[in-house]
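Before going further, learn to read the protein records used in this course. A complete example follows; check for yourself that the lines match position by position.
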Amino acid sequence: MTTTITTPIEDYAVLGDARTVALVSRTGSIDWLCLPRLDSHACFAALLGTPENGRWLLAAEHATSVERAYDGGSFVLETTYTTPSGRARVTEWMPLADGRSDIIRRVEGLEGTVTFRHEWIVRFGYGAIVPWVSRVRDSDDVKVIRAIAGPDSLTMHARHLPKAHHNHHEDTFEIRAGECEDFALTWTPSWAPVPDLLPVADRLEETRKLWDKWANACAYDGEHRDAVVRSLLVLRLLTNDETGGIAAAATTSLPEEFGGVRNWDYRFCWLRDAAMTLESLLEFGYREEALGWRSWLLRAVAGDFEDLQIMYRIGGSRDLPERELGHLPGYAGSAPVRIGNGAVDQVQNDVLGEVMVSLDLARECGLEETSDSWSLQVHLVDDMLDNWRKPDHGIWEIRGDKRHFTHSKMMCWAAVHRAIIGIEKYGLPGPLEKWRAVREEIRDDVLTHGFDPSLNSFVQYYGSDQVDASLLALLQVGFLPPDDPRIIGTVDRIRDDLAEGPHVLRYRTSKGVDGLPPGEHSFLACSFWLVDALARIGRVDDARKNMTELVGVANDVDLLAEEYDAEHTRFAGNFPQALSHLGLVRAAHTLDVVEKGTARVN
């Protein structure tokens, strides 16, 4: 088996336990899974290579139709296969609240007889390491097989196990109406004893209830509620329930340009993305997650405040060097495949702005500051005041020369502005007059150097004549009022230069600012940012039209990738992408607020 996996990204659904995420295709193949945590090594990596790099296939043969959906507000996936000889359903999920890492796949016969193909190809180390596999238990009720290599092991419990064949395990079996077969896979350290089989029926019901309870707590009854709730669920899925760290996506190296080199590892916690996630969860009524993330932040940045990184591992560790995996050909031949992320060493001056905006909202939602949490913010803001004048790599993590990005400067303004609110509104201690003076200095600098009167628009960086979709954040943080002509001019310029219908590019990669070969697709988060901006400046009809079209871009289980290729109607980039789902819920919230006039927009 040497065929490269080319399953469309939009054909994947996800399973997860709030510690890791599995990608399962419409054809029943789990092609990506890192265990025990989302930033661990993959044991199924066919997504970025071939079946030989590891996958777990369980699918009906000769299917004439495949229908799938999540059960309510959960990540319990139900897939119904229809074949010429019958119908069968596969229910699959990762149990919650067990402190274990399990995937369970239940096959049930509905009508007639259906033949299933079963392949179990375990490859630890991102598809590179063939494990030692042995049967460790064999009885009429349940059989047990275990794969071990180095520190990892995977154990499968089932009544009918696949058979060994040239470093693979393969089988076909029939399921008749009324019959049921369970296949349970468990990760444990290789030195641990063979794990017991979970009580499958109990864990299925428990997992459904836990997800449903979380989804039903969503304080939103506006338009596109189903898409909003699913997006919030994705954000929760990417939030580690042990550490509070929030991952940017579940995958690495899904290409922004098919066949190109824009392939990055997003399985880490960006302070910017995590702060935006916190903001969205708070806006929709979720406070426990906010406390968890604030605790994660305190732990992650503990130490010298000048050593603040833009991203960390899920547990808060700092070491994530970028390297390439030469043994993987990449999704659709898009090489290199990267793990780790070299942007960890970049200077991105906008990050603190996002953090301070989210923590300001946390205060407004009733989360009291601790002495440690406020002290952290004071020190970070003071450190920023010494550095905001310097060029940086910007929100898009360019790998070219540093620039004075307008968005970065404006977010520095947002950081000190929110710190000032902490003093003025909540009575927190701090150097108020000093911060007020710097706030005005940054504002004047942005208005002088970041705005081009001849274009009636803010620009991507000082001295540029180009726009950047990140400038839409000018509205989100309240840098200028929404009716300011400079704001309206910038929105219009972005629509003219970067948008085609509702679909918006981040910036023109052909201009070479990012130091990479040109070429990528519309960025879904930016497309939703435009919806947000249009609503704020009063063009509600345009905003609603764009919103409806963009919500329709989601796949059949309401998931979004990083980018969208409108010409070929396909996803690109890592999946599912937190920033895309964040853009959706932010746009929905803003539209709801503008139309109802019920809450603040900034």
Remarks:
- The mean pLDDT is 93.
- The domain at 9-212 is CATH 2.70.98 (Beta-galactosidase; Chain A, domain 5).
- The longest strand covers residues 101-121.
- The radius of gyration is 25 Å.
